[in-house]
Amino acid sequence: MEDQNVxxxxxQRNLLIFSFIGVLVIGLLGGIVFSIVEYRGITSDLSWSQExxxxxxxxxxxxxxxxxxxxxxxNLFDVRKPSIxxxxxxxxxxxxxxxxxxxxLDIGNEGDWEIGMTLLSEIQSNSxxxxxAQTTVEQFRGKVLAQELGTERTNRRSAEDEVQSAEDEVQTERTNRRFVEDEVKRQILTLNLVRNALESETTARLTAESATQTxxxxxxxxxxxxxxxxxxxxxxxKQKFLAQIEATSQRxxxxxxEAAKVQAKADALAxxxxxxxxxxxxxxxxxxxxxxxxxxxxxExxxxQELAVTNPMIQG
Length: 316
Known about the structure:
The protein is mostly helical. The chain contains nine helices and no strands.
């Protein structure tokens, strides 16, 4: 009887031990399984955070890291904690670089390309935004070069227009000067024709009959007055043309040599005109002398006729 009780107690003790061991094994297996599930959750959170970070959803990536950081394996055993901290630091760096990139992009798109390139150059070479920033910098640099090229082309076109305008102005001045020179030549020719006509008329008056000399002298005096007035008008016109030549010479500051030639021509014209005036004065003196001689002859004839009337002996 006692042997049965001993066996029974031994069996109960063994069952209790095996039950404890079984519970311990089951608990251990459950802990291992739960730990594996928890670890997979941590890994999943890290992977998801990385994917969200790559799509620039940094808020979602941070929330995923917060979930991973709150798991008991991380809090109790620091499982994957360095990876979580590295991802937090990387997200923080990306957020800062994103701000630099966005600020540089916005400022550059507003037209401040130099400032935009300066901000984009602050992004380090190991940054997620480095290649994108470098591409944008090259785009802004191309715009700066295009603007400088456009400015250079505009300045060159403006300079070419100024040169063309100056050439046109010089051509216009030369045309005006040529017109003035032609007009001066025409006036000189007219003056020569008038002088020749005056000489012809003077010769005709000298060879005309003395009976009509007084009347012809009166007519010639009228004609001479007309001629003098015409010559005076011609001289005034020539003076105006000379004034135009002088004004043209003043405008042609860039062509001093040509202006000197025009002035020389004007001086030569003035000398010719003075010579013509002296010639006309000589002709006028001859005309006056002839008129005085004719008046003296007429007076002598009248005196002789009067003596013939009063003295019959002179008549015989």
